[in-house]
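Worked example 2:
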Amino acid sequence: MNVKVEERVANYQAASTMKAIGLTRLPEIGRVAENLQMITVPVARPKPDEVAIQVCASSLHIDEIYAAQGTALGRFYGPKNVSLEKPHLMGSSVSGIIVGLGGKTEKFSLGDSVIVIPDQKMEIGSWASYRCVRENMVMTKPKGYSHVEAAAITMAACVAWGAIGFSKTQPGDRCLVVGASGSIGIMLVQYLKTMGCTVTAVCSGKNEAFVKNKGADTAIDYSQQNFADHALSTGILYDRIFDCVGGRHIERDSFRVLKRTGVYETVVGPVQYIGEHKLSWFEFSKVMRYILRRLFVTLFHGPRYMFGEKFPRLVIKDALNRAEKYHLRMPLEKTVPFEIEAVAEAVKLLMTHRAKGRIVINFDIPFTVDE
């Protein structure tokens, strides 16, 4: 065993507590950042089917914030009872190094560099020194990525590649991506270009050069021109339109410029920034009824309406293999240290919806295993 790995394992085994960032009370909507605390909790220990991971990097996802404040789908799997004795630990994504093995694990060895496969239920506990995860939800980190890069790309790669597969996009299709400068949008742009698709990116004017640098053939500044009006004025119809922003107005405009055999694929749904609101059961059911109606009606005529993407566990290997093959990267808005003030400010930035790419917590651990 590598001496450095032995030191990591020994340090983990000797530890009784660890640092973690979380909540000790339920926050008001929009006030998660102000309520985050650095707390000391018992060190995570693996169950028989789990591995223990020393966290090297964790990406910030806005759905983690929505879950913590109990909005949108967070009303189902967000925290219900939070206290100092029972804190809600933040974070879901992990890239790190295995330092402990459960008695029934077989796939990995101590010292392996791994990532956690995203779970659609948004697991928690990654903004901490150590995290224990079921072995079947862990895979080897691609060697072409650092821990920070791996944490940054994993979730968005799964969503983007899952949406491409779900919509049955074909090589050479003419595609439009709404919200192209965000984390999912920029992965869609890159993946579509690897398929030989013609890609139009919709973003703010200040991000036009950014999306073109990542492969977009053309960019439309949404503040200056409606993308549907632009397409109609130039005689363009699209095979696939990917919506990473949400809102019925985007759906309406998209259906104006889709081919009859085209597909409108939304990963967010008919309500823009739905995660910022605590929907009543009536409001939530209304949204779901709308989605189901659109899914059913468009089965029979005109362009298809599609919502969601393939589950991450079904696409992650293909998504990351393709990303590594074509040298795709998730742009980093910034990396922040594992310190409460820095992470709280990063959460505030995340909530502005203005970050280009990902924000990643770098735990600043010396990497000596496969880096």
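Confidence is low (pLDDT under 50) at residues 367-371. The chain has two domains: 3-141+331-362, 155-312.
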